[in-house]
Write a structure and sequence with these properties.
single chain, 3 helices, 54 strands, nine-stranded mixed sheet, mainly beta
Length: about 725
């Protein structure tokens, strides 16, 4: 058995930049504080502080009670540099109370005054640390009065170079700059304006993410690429995207809640990307479309302390999620953590002020069942969709979970082609063939209205013998107001014998498209299976053909649902790389795929697990970022895990890595709830912040004298080693 080093992680929660250094500047001991608020003053060694960003953290170490602080005042050379009246605590959760401030010059004296107590007893022990991020050297004349002057001749602003520089308010860039790296200005909370010169060709991922004061951004012709979430959470009201931009995604303005107008050039790349965005405006023509926006959109989650044990009325506005031609809306509340479930009752849903759904029954989301779902039919053209109800927890306030919304058309069965489904006998397979392998259908279905798309199969529709059958989804192409590029059809078992299928494929305009050759089942064990494909732009009709049977008797019944990238609510069916099949939330990547491409499954709230074949050598940046994946086993063939590949996967608790892996890029597992992980000895490159924000991570296993051993040992963010196996 090979030796490993067990690393117990003490993540420093204080905000700091890449150049930050951590120094212990004090402690508190058992008996030092009581349960009564008392004023306390600390005098710190001013030599340890710098001109720039300074962060003082009170970090709990041991004892049964946490330390509480409020009415904090920090002075430098007699002048107040920070006041914070709010109460913070240092205990098990959160671990530290953190105070960050900026100094214009190195101080001679530093003092901190606060009201302090414990939350019970006197046995609280901890340390006081300082993290500093020095301002640019005066000789460079780079930062003065909040204005950052990038040195002339600079060609690249490197990744995270000004990460969390709170003193920064404005940027002046020379014409020499070509690239702004990933997270270069991430969380520069006071940055208010940035004029990006025409020389800049690339703005990388999250370059200006979480710049909460950024109200003015100027981009110029010459810019070629804008990376994912480049301006996330900025507060500008309008922005112009140059015609020269050829690479960008529709999430670059994620969480920009004040943005009302996105100016683009007609027929440009930005025009096509934001075509369905109600904020789109054409230069010289104005806004091309307007869709109603909810005044207070429903949140994507609920968090601790949001609900108590008392029933309270809540209202959730899902208007922003509507497409304008939605017919079925599905709202799901899924419990993720905490000790108490969320309960709801007396739920009503209103569409444009008219009640369309009501249920007095009490439902809950907790350990069992994990979630509750509300489904309702929504009239076409609905502009406002409001859910109201009474909510509480079943005890305490520590309940957390996700709130998701999906929309689709409300399909029924085709009545015009006897080879396909019929109204009286839904999802009936063809009775003219007993072939054991699939053959091309010679009968083209007639495209009908959206109400004729298959929605279920029933008892008697299938027997125990393999028979070819088909389903007509052509009405999708007629009913959608935008181009339908991809489709996913899911068969979900409701009762009776299980449904078996094999050799399924889509047909369009006489061409055979992608499908699913492997045999799959929908039963009590494997609840569902799915089949996906990309749809040609010139498609006039679309049908799914396959062989079907039951595993005993004919009493099998279930539902057939359709999701497309054009009519779903934020759920794309990803076919790059091609998904061979989907079963109960498990995505099986097609054998032969070599790269799981950039953002291939990002923000996918259907995926739970993924089976990666040994042909895959790279998982590209943000491939699974923000998805609902819960576990992943990355095979030994994978050599690279890209930037942010699994970042913000709120349900990811288990990650298995194998020898052969070489690179784990920056922020690869940022803000995931994994508790432990083993880094293979083959890894020779680990990016910064790879486990930043992983608050539940307790152990990292590394091989002795490996690159990972040296990497974590040299970073003061991680605690000292204890030998493990």
């Amino acid at each position: 058995m090979k030796k490993h080093l067990l690393i117990t992680i003490a993540l420093i929660l204080s905000a700091k930049s890449l150049t930050a250094q951590n120094t212990q500047i004090g402690t508190w001991k058992k008996g030092e504080f009581t349960t009564e608020w008392k004023e306390r003053t600390w005098s710190f060694d001013a030599n340890k502080f710098v001109a720039g960003t300074n962060t003082i953290s009170f970090t709990y170490k041991s004892g049964g009670k946490k330390l509480c602080l409020k009415d904090v005042q920090i002075t430098a050379d007699g002048k107040t540099v920070l006041t914070d009246a709010t109460e913070q605590s240092a205990g098990y959760n959160p671990k530290s109370a953190v105070y960050t401030f900026t100094l214009s010059a190195k101080p001679k004296t530093i003092k901190m005054k606060a009201q302090a107590r414990t939350d019970g007893g006197t046995n609280s022990i901890g340390k006081i640390t300082l993290a500093v991020s020095a301002a640019p050297k005066a000789a460079d004349e780079r930062l003065k009065d909040g204005i950052l002057h990038i040195k002339d001749g600079t060609t690249e602003i490197k990744a995270k170079e000004y990460y969390r520089t709170s003193a920064l308010k404005k940027i002046v860039m020379p014409q020499s700059v070509r690239t702004i790296g990933a997270q270069a200005f991430f969380n520069c909370a006071n940055l208010s304006e940035a004029d990006i010169p025409a020389s800049v060709k690339t703005i990388d991922e999250s370059a200006f993410e979480n710049c909460y004061s950024l109200s003015k951004i100027t981009l110029h012709e010459g810019l070629d690429r804008i990376g994912s979430k480049a301006f996330k959470s900025a507060v500008m009201t309008e922005i112009t995207i140059p015609k020269s931009v050829t690479e960008l995604s529709n999430d670059i303005f994620y969480d920009c809640n004040k943005l009302t107008t996105i100016w683009v050039t007609k027929n440009s790349k930005a025009h096509s990307v934001f075509m369905s965005d109600s904020r789109l405006a054409i230069v010289g023509e104005g806004r091309v479309q307007q869709q109603p926006k909810a005044a207070a959109p429903a949140p994507s989650k609920w968090v601790s302390n949001e609900f108590s044990t008392t029933w309270t009325t809540r209202e959730y506005d899902f208007s922003e999620k509507l497409t304008g031609y939605t017919e079925v809306a599905t709202m799901t509340f899924t419990y993720t953590s905490g000790r108490h479930k969320l309960c709801a009752r007396d739920i009503t849903i209103e569409a444009d002020g008219q009640q369309i759904y009501t249920s007095a029954a009490e439902v809950s989301a907790g350990g069992s069942p994990r979630s509750f779902t509300i489904n309702c039919n929504v009239p076409k053209g609905t502009k406002s969709l409001i859910l109201k109800g009474e909510f509480r927890t079943d005890g305490g306030t520590d309940s957390n979970g996700n709130i998701t919304f999906m929309s689709s058309l409300a399909p029924t069965r085709n009545t015009n082609n006897t080879t396909y489904a019929t109204t009286s006998s839904p999802a009936k397979p063809a009775t003219t063939s007993t072939a054991t392998t699939s053959t091309t259908s010679t009968t083209k279905p007639v495209a009908q209205s959206a109400s004729e798309i298959p929605t279920q199969w029933g008892a008697g529709d299938f027997s125990t013998s393999w028979k070819e059958g088909g389903f007509d989804f052509s009405p999708l192409l007629k009913s959608s107001k935008t181009t339908v590029d991809q489709i996913c059809v899911t068969f979900t078992h409701t009762g009776g014998a299980r449904l078996c299928a094999r050799d399924m494929y889509f047909m369009s305009n006489g061409r055979r498209l992608e499908g699913l050759v492997a045999e799959v089942t929908a039963s009590a064990t494997y609840k569902s299976f799915s089949v996906t494909t990309s749809i040609p732009n010139d498609a006039r009709y679309l049908e799914l053909i396959g062989e079907f049977r039951t595993d005993g008797g004919s009493d099998s019944y279930g539902t057939i649902s359709v999701v497309t990238n054009a009519i779903s609510s934020g759920v794309d069916i990803h076919t790059n790389p091609a998904v061979e099949r989907i079963q109960d939330g498990t995505y099986f990547i097609k054998s032969g795929t070599t790269v799981i491409s950039k953002m291939a499954f990002s923000d996918n709230n259907l995926i739970k697990r993924v089976v990666i074949p040994s042909s895959v050598t790279k998982i590209d940046e943000d491939a699974f970022a923000g998805s609902s994946i819960t576990e992943v086993d990355i095979p030994s063939s994978v050599q690279t895990i890209g930037f942010g590949a699994f970042s913000k996967c709120a349900d990811l608790t288990k990650v298995t890595l194998h020898e052969g892996l070489k690179t784990i890029a920056a922020s690869a597992f940022y803000q995931t709830p994994i508790t432990e992980i083993t880094i293979p000895g083959s890894v020779s490159d680990i990016g910064i912040w790879v486990f930043q924000g992983c608050k539940k991570l307790k152990r990292i296993y590394v091989k002795e004298r490996s690159y990972a051993d040296k990497f974590f040992n040299s970073d003061s963010t991680w605690s000292r080693y204890t030998l493990g196996y």
